[in-house]
Every structure is written in C-alpha cells, then in structure tokens.
Amino acid sequence: MRGTTTSVQILIESGHLLTRRFLFNSELSLGSPGTGISEQPQQNDVDVDSCRGARNSQLHILNAVKLSLMLTRAFGRGYNIRKNASFVLDDFVVKLEFLLNAGEDHDEASSPDDKQLPRTSTVGEFNAITSDDCDEWVLLDVELKYLDSRFPSEHASTAAVMQSLGKLLFAIFSQNNDAFEPEASYSKGEIESRTETIHHSSKTRRSASKSLFQQYIELGFPISVCRFLSDLIDGDMTHHSFMRFDDIIHDLEQMISHPQVFLFNPANDFYTSTINFGQRYCGRSKELAKLFEITTIPNESRVDLEAIFVSGMAGSGKSHLVSAVGSFISSFGFMVLRAKFKRGMEYKSRDVVSTLMHDMVSNIVKMKESVNDSDVDYSRRASRAISKAFDADSLSVLADFVPSIESLVPDTVKKENVRCSHWQLVLLLSKLLCSVLGQERKIFIALDDLQWADPTTLELVKEVLISICQCPEERQRLVFVGMYRDNDVSSHLTSFTSSFGVSGGVIANVTDVKLSTLSLDDVIEMIMTEMRLPRRLVSELADVVHKRTHGHALFVVQLLNSLVSDLTISYSPLLHRFYWDQDNVCILNTADNVASLIVSNLTSLPIGEVQCLRIISCFGMQVDIDLLELLEVFKLAPQGGFEPYRRNLCGQGIIEVVSTLVVFTHDLIQEQVYESIPLKERQQLHCEIGIFLGSKTSLDASSEHKPIDAAMDQIYLSDVSDKEETYIYASSLVAIATSQINNAGPEFFSDRAQHFRFASWNFRAGKHAADHSSFRAALHYYKNGIAFLSHDLWLEDTYELCLKLYEGAAFSSSALGENSLVSMYANDIINNVNLEDSLVAQSLLIGSLSVLGKYKESVARGITVLRQLKFDIPATQTPTVVMQTLERTEREASMYNFSQIANNQNRGDTKTRKILKLVESIAAACYQIASPWLPLVACETVRYSLQNGIHAESASTFGIVAFFQVFLKQSFELGRQWGTFATNILENVEGPTPATIRPRFFLCLYVNFWYVPLQTSINHMLEIEYMSLKFGDTSLAYMTKSMRFKFLFFRGERLSILSQTSDMNLQTMARFTVGSAKYSVLDREMIDSLTGDISSTPYVVFNGKIRNKQSLLADAHSKMHFQIAEAVHLKDFIASFWMGDYTEAAKSSDIALSFPSSKMPKVQLIYHMFYRGIVMFHLYREGKGEKYLEEGNKMQDQVQTWVKNSIPIFENKLVLLEAEHYASMGNVVAAKESYELSVELARDNGYVHEQGLAYECMGKYLMSIVEISESERCFLYAHKCYTQWGAMAKASKLWKDWNLGLSKGRIEHSTIKHQRDE
What we know:
With 1318 residues, the chain is α/β, with parallel strands linked by helices. The chain is built from 61 helices and 20 strands. Helix 15 (349-367) packs across helix 16.
C-alpha cells in the first residue's frame, strides 16, 4: 500500500463511488451505540466500466451527489453536538471534526469555548481504499477544506446552517466547472470573492433579473440539482425551502437510487408531452417483492407447483401487479401467458382457456424464426415432445381447441365438428402442458377475473393442474396466478381456490396476496415518479388525492389524469417542472367515486372518440382489430374510421393494443362507457352491429335449420378498399353477430319474423358451439333462441325450430351435469310433441334421473316409453317369464346367420338409432339396481334391431343377452354365440368410435373373459382404456383400469407392481369415478394384507367421507349399493383365505353369497368358487361336518362346468379341487398325483401364486399323513413362490407356522424330487 493525496475532483471523476454499497455508521465519542443504515443504490443507469477514470458528466454528477449525501449526513449529525463524528462508507472512512469560529454575528462572550477555536474550519478528512484494473491497492488521503469566515456558529438557525451546507455542496458540484480550481491554494478573501460572484446578498438577488435557479441552469447543472441547490441556498425566493435535514437527505437519496428519474435531465418529449398516470408501476412494493421472490429466487424446499391468488376490490391494481411481475420475469426465460374472463360472458369462459393454450403454442411456433439459438432449439424440442405425446387422432381433436397446433405440427389434420368431452379435454391439455413444461423452461400462467369464470371452466383448469401435479419435474416449472375480486366470490370460486394446497387436489405452494387500498406513501411515489419531482414538492398534492380517493388505486389514477386533462396540473417552462396551485387543488369539486369520475372524464372526450369507445364497449372488454377493420364501413362507425381515435385513446390510457386485440385498460372503464349509453340507444347499437356482421355470414342464406355447412367454416372478408386480406372464421362471426342481437334482447324487436330469424341465428350458433364441445356457450345460445320464440312456442311454423332449440338445451345441460335443467327442457318437449319426436328428450331425462340415483324411476319411465313404442315388454318379470323371453329371442335370432345380420347393419333410420340410444339409457339404469327388467328389455330390443336394422348401439343388447345366457341358463355355448354376434357387430363398424367403446367394455368384462386366457382379457382392457381416454370417456377409462387391476391380481402379477400402480392411480380414479375407486381401495387393502404393508392409507382418496372399511360398508347399505357391500365381504374372504384363516373365510364367503349380485357372471365369481371349494374341503378334514364336504363337491362341480370354456384359466383350479376332494376321501395316490399335476399346470400357465397354493395344500395334506420330509419340501417351495409373488406377509406366516427354518436345514442336502421347479 502507498499513500497519496488527491483532490475532490479526482475522487468525483473516479468510478469508485459508483461501485460501492454504502454503509453509514455514526459513532459518537460519548460511547452511545451507533445506528447503521445500509442502502444499495441502483447501478443499472450508468455503465461503470466505461466511466471509470473518464470525465463523464453523468458519472461526475452522480459521484458529486454521493459525496453530498455523505457530507449532509455528517453535517446534520456532527454540527449540533460539537463532538467528533465518524462514519464508514464501505472502504471509505470519513472522520469529521468541526472546529467552528464565532462568526460575525456570534456573541463570543456568550460562548467561552468558542474563543479557543481557530478561525480556519476543517470540514472533513477522507481516508479511502479502492482498486482499479490493476491488482495493486491504492490508499487515497483526500483532504477537503472549506474556508469561510461566515461559517455558522453552534447557535445559528437551521436555515443558516442549511444555507452554508448548500454553499458547500455547490462547491462539490462545481468541481466539474472550470471556474473552480480546488487544487489551488486560495486565501480566505479570494474564496469569498468567488463565492459572492453567484451567492451575493439576499437584497441583490431579489433585485436581479435572473434567479439563482436560472443561473445554476446556465452553469450546466441538471435541473434536479439546480432545483435542489436553489431551494437549499435561497429557499425564501423559491418558496420551497428545506425545513429538515431529513428532506435534504431524502432528495439526495432519490437522486442516487434512481438517477435516470430524479437526477439526470429527461428526454425532450418530457417537456412537451402530457403525463399519463398509471402507466408505471408504483406502490405494492411488499407484494411485488414477495412475487419476485417466489418466481425468481431458487428454493430447494419448494418442489411443487406455485399457485398465487391475488385478490382485492375492483380497481385495486391486481392486474397491474401481475402484469409487472410477468413483464419482469419474462427476461428470466419464463413464458408468460395471460388471459382474462369477461363480465357477463361466462358462457364464453371455455374460450378463454382455449386462447391461453393457443398463445402458448403460438409462442413456440414464433420461436422457430427467432435469432436466438436457444429459442430455436427450445421450439424444436417442444415440437418433438408434442408430436411424440399425441397420435394423429388426438392432435386432430386438440387442434379444434388449440388452433395453433396445426402450425406447430404440420401433419395435423383438423376434422370438422369434432366433439370433445370435458375429461378428454382435461387429458389432452394436461398432456400438452406437460410436454411443454418438460423442456426445462418455466411457464407463468395468469388468469384474471376468476369470479366471472363459469364453474365448468374452473373445474377444467383445476383438473388440468391436478394432472400436472402428478409430474414431479414438470410441476416445478409452472407458476399459476389467479386474480379475483374479493367482494364477488361465488361458492364455485371458493371451491376452486380451496382445492389448492396440501389438503386439496392441486398439490401446490399457495401464496395469497390481498391488495388493500394504496397508502399515502404509495400515492406520493406515483406522483414523484411520473413528475420526476422530490417528495417534499408533491406530498401536499398526494395528501389531497389520497384523502379524496381513500387510496382506491384506479380512482387515484383517474383523478390525477383528470387534473392533468383539465390543466389543473400542467408543465411550467419557467420552473422546468409540472406545476399546480395547491390552494386550487384543495377546493376542487371532484366525483365521489371512481365510476362517477370515469363518466365525467369521458364526457370531455371528442364525439369521435366517444363513438369509437361505445362501439368497442359493445363487444365487452376487448375486440379483435380485424373486426374493427370490418366495421370501418359500418354506418355508425366514427367518421374517418377507428384508427385515428384508437391512437388518441391509447395515448390517454383508456384502451391499449395487446397483440391483435384492442383492450380497455380496466373493466371498470369499459363498464362505465357501456352503461353511459342510454338503454334504447344501446339496444339499437347492438342490433345494427349484429345485423351488419350477420350480413357477412350465411346466417340468413336459408330458412332451413341445419348445422353450419363445413364449406362455410371459414369465409373471406375484405374491406371495401381491398387494402389487405383479412380472414375471419365464419363460426366466430356467427357467434359474435348472434351475441350482439341477444344483447339487444327479444323485447327490442316487435316484428314476429325478426323473432323467428334471430331464434334461428341462436340455433346455428348453439349447434356450432355444441359440435365443438363448448356446451356452456351452446346452452346460452339455445336459451336465447327459446327466449326469442317465447310468445310463439310450439306453433305449426315454429314447431321444428322449437324442438331443435329445446333438444339442444337439454343435451347441453346434460353435458354440463345440470340435471334440473335437463328435466325442465326434456319435460317441455315431452309435453308438447308426439312420442317419436320426444325420443331424444326421453333418453336425456332417463339419463339425468340415473345420475341423480333415481334408478327405479328411470327404469319405470323407460319401460313405459318402450311399451308406447309397441315393444312387447311382459307385465311381470318372474323367472319363468324371463326364461320364456330368452327362448323366444333365441328362436327369432336363429333365423339369421351373421352375414345376414351384417348386411342388415346400419340399415335403420334415425328413429331406430334414437330408440337404441333410449334403450342404452334404460339398460344402464337397470344394471345399477340388478333389475329383472334388464333381460326383458335386452331381448325385445334385439328383436327390434333384427327387424329394423342393426347399428353399433345394438351390440350392447346382444351382449346383455349373452350375459344372461350364462347367468340364467348356464349355457356357455349360447353365451359365446351371442357374444360373437355382438363382437362382430362392433368389428363391422369402421374403426373404433365412441358408440362402440362401452359395448366393448361390457363384452370383455362380463362375457368374453369366460372364453379367453386372462392375459388376453387384460390386453383387451388396456386397449379399451386407451380408446376411452382418446374419446374422452374418462369415467369408463378408470372403470376399465380398476377391473384390469383386479384381473392382474388374479393372474398373479407381482404385488409390489400392483401397489405402485395403485399409488399412481387411486387419487385420480376417485375424482373420475368414485364407484371404481371403492372397488380398487378394497383390492389395495387385500394386497396390503398379503404384502404386510401397514403404512398404506388408501381411504384418504375419499377426503374423509369414507374413512375405513366399516364406513364404506355403511355407505353401501345406506345407498343400497349391494354390489359394493358384496365386494367388501368378498375382499375379507379372499384375504382370510390366503392368510390361512379358513373359519373366518367361510363366514365372509357366506355373507358375500347372500347378495343376489354374487352369482352374476364376473371374474370374481371364478375365484370365489375356487377358493371356497378349498376352504370347504379343509374344514371338512378338520372335522367340521359333512355339509362342508358337500359344499366342496358343489364348488368342484361348478368349476367342472367351466373348464371347457377356457382350459388355461380353469384346468389347474379344477385339478387342485380334485386333489382336495381325493384328500378328503382318503385316496392318497390320486390326491398326490392331482396335487403334483396342479403344480405343473399352474407353473406352465404362469400362475406363480396358484403354484404356491398347490404346494401349500399338498404340504398340508402330506403333513396330515405324516410324510414330514415331503411336506416340508412342499412348504419351502410354496414359500419360494409366495416370495416371488411379493406376498411377504403370507410367506412369513407360512415360514413361522411350519417352522421352515429347521425344515430347510434338514432337507438342504437331500435329493429334491421337484428339480424341474429349480
């Protein structure tokens, strides 16, 4: 280190002050503890490296401000105590010793101590350590001296002290001015002379033509510094003198923290343009910091999806806050997606999600052409991931909801009128989002105004996010933000927000941000930032504004902008700042609320701008720019078109352009613009806009009520000048035009023909929405169509249109799960039309009753309708009648061979298909309550199909007849024959369709499993599960998954794999189909008993509604769900059987068999009879009585009748039951042979668990006849098989019960008879 001496000028010109964090610490010689204040000035305004060591004016000024701040702090603290004071500024150590003279006005006698002070005052000594580009550290000893005979004494006034400080700071700022030579040695007189050149006496200054402020400007100081120094030195003249040292410090701190705003001169347009409050983000610093921390600071403990909910009153700044965060984090690599729900347009909520996903894919498409290599690479990877995740059919469905998919994956073939169910859409969007999130970029999704989203859309968003949460890596890259008004929260929104968190379905880190009103400091910050003025100059104005607005954010902005527009606040060239008369501001008469203020502000706009705003407001919060261009020739459009007025309105902050949309900057502005239009004028405007847009479509091309022609899905529209081609989807234009007419309302139109015309428009719009699965929008249009016909319903000329509107409303209500509306619309149809025309309504009504659990009422209504259709349904359902009906159906069907049935397929008319759909609804209700009407309905429907034409829907009834051939007649051959008929009907349909999936499920689960190996059924179920998901039948997909789980268990799948599968699927299954989840929970309990897993808690998926097996059983009995009750006892039976508790197993089996459903053909029946037979034979050999032998023989006979259906399934089971029979009869030789054969057959078919069972049964029998060694050998083999199966609890129990540790040692070196099993 080396020492040197330098000047203040050198220090100012260095880059040192610019690169250090300041730490101020006052250490008093009295020994009191110091007070530390740390601050980090923003460094992004000046390039430090380029400035270091150079004579850069901004660098010099900024360093001068920092030195001034150092001296001001020391001056304010050190002067009054007349003690030594020191402070540390990073590497700077500044020591101040004030040696004050008495001064001309000071009474020396009154201060004896002052007489001892020398006349020269040393203001400060700086010791600084710094570094430059070299590795060598340099010690700078900087000495600053100020010689002033008028330096104020201890008893001088604060104003005098501040004036002297001002002169000192002026000297610092002047170091960059050639008029000052700080390195030269001046006498006291010379310094005074130079100072007086500018700082002459007060009397002289008042008479001068130029103010001190103006003279400083001529010296080239920044305006903010000129204002600061003149107010400090000459406050009486500027009327803005400093009152406290804190104000001085605050001014300087502002200049340092934000030099581009509060220090350096602004661009020239600042002086000429009108300021617009609300464009920058001010206030909410704590909330902003919290959101920045969540989104930008890595935190290893936060491994879940981030969910942020921002709430507050209307106009509190929710959107502004989230917009500020989104804009900032986009520079960190986030893909920021924003969408907003619209007031009064809840029916279009689904389109908001569509727009969000469309924007995401569009961003990826745009990245293909980016100059940034990482963007291009990301786009390619995302494209590949999406292409890999979806097959062609799924992409086609997805493209209907996310149109930009076609641009990302060029091979996508978009199909027309693709209907996509709610759950299919959930899965498609989940897969899409996961594919994109998997590419290691974070996504920020913000949904605004959640209070205006319809419940179905909230459910869609929730389910998609739940699915994302199942992906551990992807969920960490998603930030979801929801904004809503806290005074407009519905139960649906409450349910949505409460679903986030550990206890909800969406596993997320949840942050709630509640925005209150703006504080006074927030308002001060807003005014300071826009006007580039210090706090002391704006605080009084801010106080008035805050009191008038009560801190309402939008009210604050609107009030300030109104003060600017009426010139209460205006720019003063003389003062070089915005100026206002504070007295006038205080007495201004302003509106009492933001709504009134917005209205009053709008009245001052030019007529063209008002007209422009009114037309835009008729479309809601936003309108497409292309649509405005189309309206240029509209007769009510402002003269000269929209563009000139749009630019002006954007400049005033009323509207803004976002991508291809013109958007109101706040929904309260749109609301007030819209409501300021008189009602009649508003209705007329909607009417004329609607008719004008309708004229650009085919809405009035025909009076026929058909779906929108595929050829019209997109039409060409251009303005009259042909300046640019513009394509607008006709379907969108139809919806927009129809919505405008609906906003005018039926009461606006008095002409009956117009009512019919616009009811037809609504049918067309509703049909298109329903064809694209937007059922909320469809229902909205259907309802409005009905409203237009309210005085002419069901008349001869409106009959057809009424029927279509009511059917559409009933169908859309059914799709939305609004069963009360289904009932209302369906009954209206039934009461006003003939039977044939009511078939669709009847089917929907029966389905809605079933959803409500009213199965008996559904069946009764269905039977009545079928009889009205001349179906020969018997009056009673006795077993004799059922058997006679089956036989009659067999006879009639025997008259056809399959080729005839195939030729007859699809020959039926529309009525036949409607009847078949009606029967499907009836059959589903019958099955739920095991109604005896089911075989009668199925048989009669088969006869009807044979006579009137076979359709895909006919397969269900053929399958039901096959089921009852097995169930009631025990005729497996007839069951196979009818099942083949049903299968061939399905295979004769070109490709899988939604209509074929459920019949396939029924055939696989209840018919075909008898005749094929278990693995074949499992493979078929996997295909059905995939197709169900593809077609959106998620409920069926999880029903299939549940049954496949059961088949895998019975086939002997490794239990650990089944446990993992259960963990992955149970939670989701419970959301889609609670019934299937109940069965799967029981299966999981059974597996846990075999594996010994005591940590599993499968019942948690029911969220406390069902806590254990006992509550599940009680729930089943209370709801008369006897198949669930049977399943509970069957689970207990199987678990007890495998764990060797045969007495308990027999009890559970007897209870299960008491339910009528226990004898219905299903895979569980096979294993129930098989295990029950083993239990009965064992209990007989334990001396329980002859009845157990009889029951065992009965089970053996039952399996004997099944074995010819599928030898791979039944043969090893029959042979094991025969072995048990021989053992019970004392036939040792036959028993041993059968046991060994059963072991061999189980092994050959891959049934490792049944191989172990055969070994165990054989071991028990050999032990009973005292063949100890062979018995122990069998137990060891059984233990090996159970271990391989994963049944560790079973294996441990076997080891313990038979003391196999000793047995293994005894036979380890002996010859093992069953070497083939090694």
